[in-house]
Amino acid sequence: MLSPKRTKYRKAHKGRVHGVAKGGTTLNFGAYGLKAMEPGRITARQIEASRRTITRYIRRVGRVWIRIFPDVPVSTKPAEVRMGSGKGSPEYWICRVKPGRIMFELDGVAPDVAREAFELAAAKLPITTKFVTRPGEEVSA
């Protein structure tokens, strides 16, 4: 699963995901993409589950790019622990995703295969997404 090799700080504030994506809103590598339509926090496990779904459906033909990276630690306290005594230890990693962000890209497959692969991958994610293609490219389905 994805996680940073090292970070400046061990723990982070929760924060809120406001506004729209500033960068990463256009297709840079592949012909098809999966774009986020609402803000949210996506875990490393969800990214990995989506990636596996895409690669299995396209039967390892073509190429997949992951355009997001989980770099924010989420800490939790153990069950049945009293209030106070500090913040919990980091448990997993998340990526804050804003609307408009391209999360996955795909190339080397037919448009209908790409669409179906991204629909299966979107089922693994907690936010609504949209299938996008390069401008001027014909898409059947």
How does the SSE layout of this entry go?
Elements: E1 32-36, E2 40-43, H1 44-57, E3 63-66, E4 72-76, E5 89-97, E6 102-107, H2 111-122, E7 129-133
Antiparallel strand pairs: 1-6, 1-7, 2-5, 3-6, 4-5
Helix pairs in contact: 1-2
Compose a concise summary of this entry.
The protein is α+β, with helices and mostly antiparallel strands.
Commentary on this structure:
The protein is an alpha+beta fold and 141 residues long. It has a domain at 32-77 and 88-133: Aldehyde Oxidoreductase, domain 3, CATH 3.90.1170. The protein has 2 helices and 7 strands; from the N terminus they run ββαββββαβ. The protein has helices spanning 44-57, 111-122, and strands at residues 32-36, 40-43, 63-66, 72-76, 89-97, 102-107, 129-133. The strands form 2 sheets. A 4-stranded antiparallel β-sheet has the order 3-6-1-7, covered by helices on one side. The chain has a 3-stranded antiparallel β-sheet with strand order 2-5-4. α1 runs antiparallel to α2. The longest helix has 14 residues, at 44-57. The radius of gyration is 17 Å and the shape is elongated. The relative contact order is 0.31.
